[in-house]
Amino acid sequence: xxxxxxxxxxxxxxxxxxxFEHQNKLNSSCxxxxxxxxxxxxxxxxxxxxxxxLGKEFYGKGLNRPRQRLTTKSSRPVSVxxxxxxxxxxxxxxxxxxxxxxxxxxxxxxxxxxxxQVNIQITHSSExxxxxxxxxxxxxxxxxxxxRFPDGTKNYKNRALRTPFLKSxxxxxxxxxxxxxxxxxxxxxxxxxxxxxxxxxxxxxFHIKLPTERFGTNGQKLEQxxxxxxxxxxxxxxxxxxxxxxxxxxxxxxxxxYEAARMELLEEIARGASxxxxxxxxxxxxxxxxxxxxxxxxxxxxxxxxxxxxxxxxxxxxxxxxxxxxxxxxxxxxxxxxxxxxxxxxLEKGVSLDDIHKKIVKGEIQTKVSKQLRQKKYFSVEKIQRxxxxxxxxxxxxxGKLDEPKPSLEPRALTTIELYAKAKEEQxxxxxxxxxHFKLGSNEILVLVTKLxxxxxxxxxxxxxxxxxxxxxxxxxxxxxxxxxSAILPxxxxxxxxxxxxxxxxxxxxxxxxVQTLELExxxxxxxxxxxxxxxxxxxIKNNGSDFYVDFVQEAKQVQxxxxxxxxxxxxxxxxxxxxxxxxxxxxMHRFNxxxxxxxEAKSAGKLxxxxxxxxxRFMAIRQLVWNKNYNVKPxxxxxxxxxxxxxLQDVYANYPEYRELLRMIMSTVGRGGEGxxxxxxxxxxxxxxxNNNCKGGIMEEWHQKLHNNTSPDDxxxxxxxxxxxxxxxxxxxxxxxxxxxxxxxxxxxxxDRAIHSEPDFKRDQKEGLLRDLGHYMRTLKAVHSGADLxxxxxxxxxxxxxxxxxMVGVQINPISGLPSxxxxxxxxxxxxxxxxxxxxxxxxxxxxxxxxxxxxLKPRDRLxxxxxxxxxxxxxxxxxxERGYEELNDAGPEKIMxxxxxxxxxxxxxxxxxxxxxxxxxxxxxxxxxxxxxxESWALYAKSVxxxxxxxxxxxxxxxxxxxxxxxEYLGSHLGVDQWAVNIxxxxxxxxxxxxxxxxxxxxxxxxxxxxxxxxxWQVISPVEVVGYVTVVDELLDVQNKTYNRPTIIVxxxxxxxEEIPDGAVAVLTPDMPDVLSHVSVRARNxxxxxxTCFDSGIMSDLQAKDGKLLKLQPTSADVIYRELxxxxxxxxxxxxxKEDDVPSTITLVKKQFGGRYSISSEEFTSEMVGxxxxxxxxxxxxxxxxxxxPTSIALPFGVFEKVLSEKANQGVAEKLQVLKKRLEDGNHGxxxxxxxxxxxxxxxxxxxxELKGTMQSSGMPWPGAEGEQRWEQAxxxxxxxxxxxxxxxxxxxxxxxxxDHDYLCMAVLVQEIVNADYAFVIHTTNPSSGDSSEIYxxxxxxxxETLVGAYPGRALxxxxxxxxxxxxxxxxxxxKPIGLFIRRSIIFRSDSNGEDLEGYAGAGLYDSVPMDEExxxxxxxxxxxxxxxxxxxxxxxxxxxxxxxxxEKLYGSPQxxxxxxxxxxxxxxxxxPQM
Length: 1477
Description:
Blueprint: H1 4-10, E1 57-58, E2 63-64, E3 94-99, E4 105-111, E5 116-123, E6 129-137, E7 154-156, E8 160-164, E9 166-168, E10 171-178, E11 183-192, E12 197-199, E13 206-209, H2 230-243, H3 251-270, H4 275-282, H5 290-303, H6 308-321, H7 329-348, H8 353-362, H9 416-427, E14 432-440, E15 443-452, E16 455-462, E17 468-472, E18 493-496, E19 499-503, E20 505-506, E21 516-523, E22 529-536, E23 539-541, E24 548-551, H10 571-584, H11 588-605, H12 607-621, H13 635-655, H14 660-670, H15 677-693, H16 698-709, H17 714-727, H18 732-741, H19 746-751, H20 767-785, H21 790-798, E25 800-802, E26 811-813, H22 823-832, H23 840-854, H24 864-884, H25 894-910, H26 916-933, H27 939-976, H28 980-984, H29 986-992, H30 996-1013, E27 1019-1023, E28 1027-1036, E29 1044-1055, E30 1064-1071, H31 1080-1087, E31 1091-1095, H32 1098-1106, E32 1111-1116, E33 1121-1126, H33 1140-1143, E34 1161-1162, H34 1173-1181, E35 1189-1190, E36 1194-1197, H35 1201-1207, H36 1212-1226, H37 1232-1240, H38 1247-1259, H39 1270-1285, H40 1290-1298, E37 1308-1314, E38 1320-1325, E39 1336-1343, H41 1347-1350, ...
Helix pairs in contact: 1-21, 2-3, 6-7, 10-11, 10-27, 11-12, 11-13, 12-14, 12-27, 13-14, 13-15, 15-16, 15-20, 17-18, 17-20, 20-21, 21-24, 22-23, 23-24, 23-25, 24-25, 25-26, 25-30, 26-27, 27-29, 27-30, 36-37, 37-39
């Protein structure tokens, strides 16, 4: 193992080794499974194939690992796996029978095989029997746990195992397998759980002795005094493995193979072979030179003089000196023999075995091995083989929408003290410096401190009914009581032994009940605080056993009176948190217990409730809240409180999947905790460190006092700083750098209740011991405070044991059961590569580990939180590995960058509740990589679309975090006095703490590569108009769409959705956003001769934003924008730069349409007097276009129907309301627009309209909605009214105002069509709008309905051009990046068709709404399964048919056309056409 993190972890002895099926097997030390270097130096057992040496003994309260003793005076090899012995006939069995209560019989049979079997049978009707059991080893009475136990076995309070019986008829069965030969017996009781009844053996434990004899495969008893050296067993096991084709064994099979190898060798010995004969036979395969062979033979007779355990240690030292390479099996054997020869050389010099042992320990045996290059590996797992997975199985859809805040509860009536506090705060003219609110049962105490000039005013109030005396003093440092000067004593004060007793005075304020108060003033800088206690009715009242304390010198975080209304938060919960913060400040124990108590309330508040808890815990984690104040608490109590909180959170996580993402973040701020010994070891181990290393004074004593008073996450950093300081050869600057880099300053060290004043000052002879002990101590600290720390998280899941020292108890963590096969070795692989400079293999291992873990996190299970902390640590390590790997990508090609991006997207998806979009991004990246490998010409163009979509996904995630978290951060931060900077960047820091920031960096790195490869340039010019104007930077174009600029303005906008209007006075809009070329805003820009372009280069955008207020000249081409700065003198006269309003001819007028007597008409009746151009054009196409172009059946509600319906007597109230609202609108109250739209929805349909519309639809072959029931007709009628109401859309209203159209003259017909449930929708411009080239057609295509193309849906459509001279060869310009598609059931759509659309010189199209009768379904799109992307022939056929339809319609009209249509099952339909503007 090449790094200290992994080395520390693996020296914990992982309890349950499992093989790892991705590649070659690793053992518990992460050496190859056939390695002789599996022994941990010097007290760990020698390694064997797949066998972890974890002799475990349970002594009531702890699990102790027996130490391996090194033999120094005997030549018998030390055997770690139990030695085989001769015995009786293996078929014989020991059997015992017992009679229990009544007719209950118990029978126990023992089979003396290699792995001894204990079969237990009991006749009993109960189905809830448990075996309460343990094993006896080394003649000790205390129970130990064997390494094997049946499924369902649970650890009972670390005292026994409990295994359920299997029920079959009238009997219950159980089989135990004992593979530890040191176990001499098992003891047990039987417990009927349902009846709470114990079955004993005459009041004692059942005691079953186990046979100690061992048998070979031939049934021959093996002599007990015969042993086989472990190195030979390893060789034989390896030969068996080769003989069987080098299979991948399960852990159980590996153990069986190892024991079978031993049995084979013991049988050889039983037949008369010596150990030397076996060694010679097994070593024949080692083809050494004659000289070496001679040398080897010459010492054969001496080999047994060197104990194998010493040889193993020497071999381990050689391996370490060689740089810990991974050898082939042959090299391992050669290394073992070289180690033996080195020791024999010492023996020949006359050195005794005792002296050889001492020299080995000191490293004084000379060895010729040299450090090998780290890159040189012979037999290693360099990469894992990732499993193929169906990524769609990873999709989670738990948070599509943010929970709406629940209705506020009725305001809680303020208590008497709260009313008093409110009145006092309103009276105060100076800010409240400190406010304390103490709850004492049903009573309260309020302390208010204000500071003005040189005076400090303290007010104390309480609602106790009995007379109250305050026993108080002043202090200049913590814990001090100083008698106050007599000059400042308030009335009713009596000095008493270094303090003052002051009786409170009842106030006459207008309050529900009496309040007793005290008020005093002191010099502002004279004292640091005020301790006090109360005497009420001769009873002393304290603050949870401690003095009350008012701090005069806390940081100036003034109480903010205006915290907003809490909109978008779980306000009731946040108010309670703010109220309890003073209690939470006492210690982490208090804070975690309060948080645990609030979880149910957070759950009832929904997602915003857990957002509030997260904000609170995050403010704690970043040290914005007090961690400990005037309260001593034991580490085990903190650990227990952590354990309680995380237990509750894990239960919510298991049962409420919609909250998992927030819960993960909460748990990452809390730490793992752990009840009992792990927490207590924080106190105990620091004493051992001080004692072992003779460092009882100075910083170690100060730190010890702090740890005993209140341990915190700061202690992890302090420990690391001390380790770094020692490693740097005692460089004090390194100590401070580690502290400061992690937010701990000298002032913070001094601020602890038990301050740390001293710097470290250790002696050189303390170096080794301190590094060793602090390293172990770091593990203990991380086990409590660092839930997401990788090393401790893995150890906690895999299991470990550590012995106690001196008065300390040991600690034992059991492995988690049910982990995937090979999972421990996968984690070892991760640790082996954790510090690799090239991080690709590490990233693959981390993500494979997360994928394997995922299924275990989706349902309730034992120790779920430990698996969660492991997943959090793996997630965090991905982020740090990616950041470390940036350098690796400096010279990397696009394939590797795309692969790294795919890994980070996968990691982000595994941590997200709503990850469908991310999963499809991941699939997109994998498809792009395959296109690159397949040398597809369009790979870069496609990858650019995936990159754009991934950016949209990141932006969406950031917006969600901001919406969910930021309001709570602002509200709670204000109440708790959190620094404003911490509130302002709260959401940003949450995002930066995850994978999103690393992903964004990788995307920025790849973007220019893709643009260059795909010849995209830095710009997409949508409207190429040369302009001059002043730069104005805005966040969203929507915010300024109704503004009028009084000078020519170039708007640089971060966001453009696609539905906005271009503001008056704007001559250009430049944006990094990606509106479609055929979106509304794009069309408006071209129509109004406004320069409009998207910039893909963040550097250019930053430069433009930096020119805010400057005068620029823009010179766009079809693919670029050249700009330069001008002086004001170079600007032509203002009249030379026209506004859009100037461009509009004053001759544009509307003719008001009248009701023609018909409520509905068929397409054959469409005329200019009855309907708008949209309806007329669709009627004109019918029968004139080729048959392969479908035209949907259409009817219309003509002009004047709305006005006719409004005039009906049944709608008189609506008409009167509209008149009032229109007057408000004329007076400039634009809020009336929304009210008008809502009023229109109250219209009632006349009977004549319903009957006539029904007849027209049915005669035209369209389905009548009312045939499906009255509700369906109401849906249709509501849709019609929404179309009429869209006349008063803000965008439409202001658009007509700008061109001075009379809004009252605007009339609205309604085009009714049956919806074609589209596979694809398209828009065609028969003249390329970007270049003005009339020889080519430009079109955009989206999946699903066309609303995502013309509406404000983010992302780009697929775009292409086709030369009219070669329509069968379309050229794709860009692949789709829109994440959402709209789909609908068979339905009817009602389209707006006003007389204000397509007027010459004014493009009114797209201003008004088209409304389907049924709501569209939003579907997240997977383009990797879309044949339009993946099937080149299908793509060519569909795009060519779209282009040909545009050409046909243009020829029909004789002018450029703007056409909308859909594709369904390969059939093309045109739903409307208009002249291209």
